[in-house]
Design goal:
Layout (H helix, E strand, L loop, with lengths): L2 E12 L3 H10 L5 E4 L16 E2 L8 H11 L6 H20 L6 E2 L2 E2 L1 E2 L9 E2 L6 H15 L3 E4 L6 E5 L2 E8 L2 E10 L20 H8 L4 E2 L4 E8 L12 H4 L3 E3 L7 H4 L8 H15 L4 E4 L5 H7 L1 H9 L9 E10 L2 E3 L11 E3 L4 E2 L11 H21 L11 E4 L12 H15 L3 E2 L1 H16 L3 H19 L8 E2 L12 E5 L2 E6 L8
Parallel strand pairs: 1-2, 1-11, 2-8, 11-18, 17-19, 21-22
Antiparallel strand pairs: 1-20, 3-7, 4-5, 6-7, 9-10, 10-11, 12-17, 12-23, 13-16, 14-15, 15-16, 23-24
Helix pairs in contact: 1-4, 1-11, 2-3, 3-11, 5-14, 12-13, 12-14, 13-14
The structure holds succinic acid.
Length: 523
């Protein structure tokens, strides 16, 4: 048995995006928190979020209307109980962020609300115009850094989750270093950076999903990768997101002929749900044999464009494009992992004392197509619930107690030893995912992808093996679902099929299977 050094904590939170930060701040009211991130506290996907947080906070709105829009976008696959939780508890979370000092944009009569595709009314709370993620994360990071009972450990990836008799007891962060905790909260984000064109930061490669899978947790709905319709498509630019809120303020989508094409596809035009817009753009790209269409804001008031979308305006200027005057080239890019680690309504996974929150999780709120700006809301609502459930399970009381670091012995599996060149391997995954597991899929392409990804997985270890594993599971789930639904488009099965109104579940020890409902018992 190896001798390892251990940190003991009441809560271990893995990931420092919105879900992780918010969970840490709530959990510290009950005990000591260790917050781990593989990057730094400022480099998370949440910080890149532009649109905002959808919540029924306006007098003319209601959780019921938000619920209806969410269910409509989700194409029959949302878990209605999870959606009820999301829309009912959402407004309270906004109030809490307000109390924590997040400066949301306001008008004299209340929050300034934005509109995005699939929403029947303005309900997107935002901060700093289109810098919402960055503003919210910056404020919560500040609070985390000020709190002596939150131990922040940066630049430290998790090697494996530790279980004893099927119960999660923490995580190994190095071959000789572990963090032991009464509750482990996984908040590691999604896997959209497994594609060449992505709106996500490079770290969003799905390792949290692999960690949970290897620890014995069930995963669900992995085939549903959401492509954002409008990422900047300039050869020299990373795929910078041009927020849907831009279309919410009236921007048009034009094809190379200058035609406003969305109305041909959907009567809601540019404000149709995201899957519809992304597929329509894909069709236009194919028809015109081009790699981009255009966003036009030229008919909108320049002052409004500059003030409401300041960071988008400035980034476009860096590429020589003036948002108020030029046509902006855009194309779809991988944006959000709808599936993930299966949870119940309290963010509990199928491994005891392991919770999953935010994009790494699959609560069922997004169904087959996430409604814009519901993701940050999901982070908040389910982080809060995860902490409540963990407190109940571990019988913690609201009196923080800092625990000292101890030395102890712990049996540990082998550490990582990369046999395959990391960057080369990741580039290969991205190429396979983009060519064969992209916006439109078919059987031959998916089978090819699975064979190539399985080979890579078998000949790599550590991080690269986990990335190949997650990519393979996405491809296998996409092959299994022989229909088109929401963001999952099969050219060989172009219609929605009522027999497939069910969730695809994967587990390391069981064959891939279907289940009608995601939610099991509450704690
Ligand atoms: C956007 O601003 O368009 C992205 C918001 C989201 O993905 O929910």
């Amino acid at each position: 048995m190896a001798r390892v050094s251990a940190i003991e904590s009441d809560f271990l939170v893995i990931g420092a995006g919105l879900a992780g930060l918010y969970a840490a701040l709530r959990a510290v009211q009950y005990g000591h928190v260790c917050l781990l991130t593989k990057t730094s506290i400022s480099e998370t996907n949440s910080a890149w979020a532009q649109g905002g947080i959808a919540a029924a906070v306006d007098e003319s709105d209601s959780p019921q209307l938000h619920r209806e829009d969410t269910l409509k976008a989700g194409r029959g696959l949302c878990d209605e109980r999870a959606v009820d939780v999301l829309v009912r508890e959402g407004p309270q979370c906004i109030k809490e962020l307000d109390n924590l000092g997040v400066a949301f944009d306001r008008t004299p009569s209340g929050y300034e609300l934005g509109r995005e595709g699939g929403h029947s009314r303005r309900r997107i709370v935002h901060a700093g115009g289109s810098s919402t993620g960055q503003r919210v994360v910056a404020r919560l990071s500040e609070l985390v850094l000020q709190n002596p009972n939150i131990k922040l450990i940066e630049h430290t990836p998790v090697i494996e989750l530790l279980t004893a008799d099927g119960v999660c007891v923490g995580a190994a962060v190095a071959p000789d270093r572990v963090v032991l905790a009464r509750a482990t909260l996984l908040a590691t984000g999604g896997a959209a950076a497994l594609y060449q064109r992505t709106t996500n930061p490079p770290g969003a490669t799905g390792e949290g999903i692999a960690l949970a899978y290897r620890a014995g947790a069930e995963l669900a709905d992995l085939e549903f990768i959401q492509f954002h319709p409008t990422a900047l498509a300039v050869p020299t630019a990373r795929s910078f997101l041009i927020s849907e809120a831009v279309r919410g303020e009236g921007a048009y989508l034009l094809n190379p002929d200058g035609e406003r094409f969305m109305l041909k596809y959907d009567e809601r035009g540019e404000l149709a749900p995201r899957d519809v817009v992304a597929r329509a753009i894909f069709e236009e790209l194919r028809k015109f044999k081009t790699d981009h269409v255009f966003l036009s804001l030229r008919h909108l008031k320049p002052d409004l464009v500059r003030s409401r979308f300041i960071n988008i305006y400035e980034t476009c200027l860096d590429y020589g494009l003036d948002l108020t005057r030029d046509l902006i080239p855009v194309a779809p890019a991988a944006h959000y992992t709808i599936g993930g680690v299966r949870t119940n309504l309290w963010a509990e996974t199928t491994v005891k004392n392991l919770f999953a929150i935010g994009e790494v999780s699959c609560t069922g709120v997004h169904g087959a197509n996430r409604l814009a700006s519901n993701s940050l809301l999901e982070c908040l609502v389910f982080a809060r619930r995860a902490v409540e459930a963990a407190v109940r399970r571990a019988n913690l009381s609201p009196s923080p107690s800092s625990k000292a670091r101890e030395e102890l012995s712990f049996p540990l599996g082998k550490g990582p030893g990369v046999r395959f060149d990391m960057q080369h391997g990741l580039d290969r995954i991205k190429r396979v995912m983009t060519e064969h597991v992209g916006l439109v899929r078919d059987r031959a392409g998916l089978e090819h992808a699975i064979a190539e990804l399985s080979g890579l997985e078998a000949h790599s270890s550590g991080l690269l093996r986990d990335q190949a594993l997650v990519a393979r599971l996405i491809a296998q789930s996409a092959l299994f679902r022989t229909e088109t639904r929401g963001v999952h488009t099969r050219s060989d099965f172009p219609n929605e099929d009522p027999n497939w109104q069910a969730h695809i579940i994967v587990h390391k020890d069981c064959p891939i299977r279907l289940e009608k409902s995601l939610q099991s018992e509450s704690p």
